[in-house]
Amino acid sequence: MSKTAILEIDGKKYEFPVIVGTENEVAIDIEKLRGATGAITLDPGYKNSGSCKSEITFLDGEEGILRYRGYSIEDLADKADFLEVAYLLIFGELPNQAQLDKFENDIRKHTLVNEEMKSILEGFPKTAHPMGVLSSLTSALTAFNPKSVNVENEKEMYDAVCKTMGKFLVIATWTYRRRMGFPLNYYDNTKGYVENFMRLMFEIPTQPYKMDQKIVDALDKLFILHADHEQNCSTSTVRIVGSSHAGLFASISAGVSALWGPLHGGANQAVLEMLEEINNNGGDVAKYVLKAKDKDDPFRLMGFGHRVYKNFDPRATIIKKAADDVLDALGVDDPLLDIAKQLEKVALEDEYFKSRNLYPNVDFYSGIIYRAMGIPVEMFTVLFAIGRLPGWIAQWKEMRTNKEPIGRPRQVYTGSPSRSFKEVNQR
Ligand code: ACO
To answer: pLDDT (tens digit, 9 = 90+) per residue, 287-337?
Structure first.
């Protein structure tokens, strides 16, 4: 028998359906709430509100479970590669070899970016943050690809997916090349996607580029871990922008802006800046832990805590191991790493952090790996965006395919009641 929830307002009872998800997640369906009662719900930060039904990603913050399309993140990080996972997220099933080869080849058809995009890039000061530039360039892609995709046409949708995957990677790396004053690189269609990322970033015309396979493998894993995370801030942004039927590039551009913030994807950069600050101030980890606990001090330990993981972040467990492997393989000896390890230990043993279930999140470790790989700190969040791209595309596609209505929350108005206008000389 289907469950219902009863709500009583002013002595009158209303019944609402209760929806149960595949993993027994329970939700009260309040779609008819306002119509029936005149009331709305208030839930700042949407901590208790589901914005959609989704078949893409399941996560259980209490148990530390993350699955893409039913497959555990542990299995995917261990056995699949990034493009396989991208295909899985976007199209719903793991590709067979022929589908995977075709996907990779079709992405390659779209890896050339219109040369006129270069003049847009040159319009930015070199000091501009790469995330701001990336968001603008992604939006600018709309100007060069003005035809909006017909989501009901499978072929058009597939092409739009490949185009976005191809061009986004290139422009993402261009933000770095421009900042460094290096000539812009082109995708090499004889090489893999993640390998291309490294080349696009680091190959310079004056000397041969030596690729370190361990770095490529670790990066591939990092991209997989970041590929989707259900209705987080940037993904919800992509869905809500797309819900107005704005195009895919415009929606992804908004997602990049949302990801930029230090409470979201910007945290990996913030982690490194925090470790640098601790190091520059004598490496006193305990002092910073005290600061983080002090309610009068706005300082927070960056890379600790998570909105949904209140036990542990399963991605952090995988990435911690990857970090150890990469740092061992590269023989990195980094004082910031020692500080990170001390911080992790102190915080994990401290009652304040224990009682609030504050554990290192994925960003705590990803920043450390990126630094060891020689990736500059301002590019950390761009790497997160490259990893998250398949998730954004998958969620946008699902939202449009399900014909979801335009996202338009309500509010409780707490401003002044109606008042009469006063002429300027009477104010
Ligand atoms: N350092 C110190 N105290 C913290 C931290 C932290 N990093 N995170 C949370 N707290 C404390 C809060 O002060 C609060 O304490 P109180 O109950 O005494 O008031 C309690 O823990 C709960 O914190 P909230 O802010 O209510 O938790 P919320 O779920 O809203 O926030 C967030 C989650 C934003 C991630 C937060 O933990 C944070 O700011 N962390 C640092 C930034 C960070 O690492 N972000 C990356 C997130 S992961 C990602 O985007 C991939």
So the answer is: 999 999 999 999 999 999 888 888 788 998 898 888 877 888 888 878 888
- The CA distances from residue 96 to 87, 102, 323, in Å, are 10, 10, 30
Task: Give yes or no: 350 in active site.
Answer: no
Helix, strand, coil percentages in the chain from 3-state DSSP, rounded to 5 = 55, 5, 40
**Domain ranges across the chain:** 1-41, 45-410
Cα 359 to ligand 1 centre (Å):
10
pTM given for the model: 0.90
- Domain at 45-410: CATH code: 1.10.580.10
Q: How far is CA 12 from CA 8, 9, 15, 33, 343, in A?
A: 5, 5, 10, 13, 54
**How high is the pLDDT of residue 143?**
93
pLDDT tens-digit series, residues 246-259: 999 999 999 999 99
Q: What are phi and psi of 127, to 5 degrees?
A: -85, -5
Residues 397-422: pLDDT tens digits?
999 999 999 999 999 999 999 999 99
> Beta partners for 71?
68
Name the amino acid, one letter, at 418.
S
Query: Which residues, including other chains, have CB under 8 Å from residue 76's CB and lie 6 or more apart?
Result: 68, 85, 88, 224
Give the active site residue among 129, 226, 229, 306: 306
User: Could you give the 3-state DSSP secondary structure of residue 28?
Assistant: strand
Query: Is 306 one of the annotated active-site residues of the chain?
Result: yes
Looking at residue 1, its pLDDT comes to: 56
- What ligand 1 atom has the least distance to the C-alpha of 233? 50
d(CA 343, CA 335): 12
What's the CA-to-centroid distance between 97 and ligand 1, angstroms?
A: 42
